[in-house]
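Per-residue structure
===
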Amino acid sequence: MNNLTIEDIHKIREEHANLTRNMSFDEYKSELQKDIKPLLSLLKSMKAKAKPYSFEIEQDIAAEPEFEYKRKK
């Protein structure tokens, strides 16, 4: 699905509109959740394991020098 044309996108949108035309909002949400569930499970399984917090924090802070305004005397 990397190379969708404008025509492909219009066909997909038309098919989606036809499939969901007579649905209530609750039915639509339910169908959407069923479609999303496998993808969400896959993403959760791919999530990196959380590392325990460490107190060794690198201090890589860069800041610009403060600018001093010159006043006329």
